[in-house]
Amino acid sequence: xxxxxxxxxxxxxxxxxxxxxxxxxxxxxxxxxxxxxxxxxxxxxxxxxxxxxxxxxxxxxxxxxxxxxxxxxxxxxxxxxxxxxxxxxxxxxxxxxxxxxxxxxxxxxxxxxxxxxxxxxxxxxxxxxxxxxxxxxxxxxxxxxxxxxxxxxxxxxxxxx
Length: 161
Prior knowledge:
The protein is α+β, with helices and mostly antiparallel strands and 161 residues long. It has a domain at 6-86. Helix content is 53%, strand content 20%. It is built from five helices and nine strands, in the order αααβββββββααββ. The chain has helices at 6-27, 31-63, 70-83, 132-135, 138-149, and strands spanning 86-88, 93-96, 101-104, 110-111, 113-116, 119-122, 126-129, 152-154, 156-159. Helix 1 (6-27) runs antiparallel to helix 2, helix 1 (6-27) packs antiparallel against helix 5 and helix 2 (31-63) runs antiparallel to helix 3 (70-83). The radius of gyration is 20 Å and the shape is flat. The model has no long low-confidence stretch (mean pLDDT 90).
């Protein structure tokens, strides 16, 4: 990033959003939403740790010579990981279109192909996002995190067709 204070700002935003999530969790009585709040706190803590790692590497680069370029290489990798960072609160679906397989939440791979006398059918599972009604007070918080911190959040459940 060209702005030298970008990651300091990002750290402040993430820490503030984490406090908002923790404060809103206190009023929550729904067990399902409590699990989602806990997952969101964990995800924000992971993002904060990633940003802290980036700022530590930036400090190292400004205070020590990096003749081999290892710290710069590591910093670039950390920045790329943060740019792709995603918080998944419910289900995660991976699809391999080459092998026609899918897996849910890192479990076993399942074949999406089926064949009978009528031909071959490919049927993958799909993700359906939870509605704002299902998320309650968590919905505006998740939108704030997406908009203010640029962190992608997936709150969806797997549906089998």
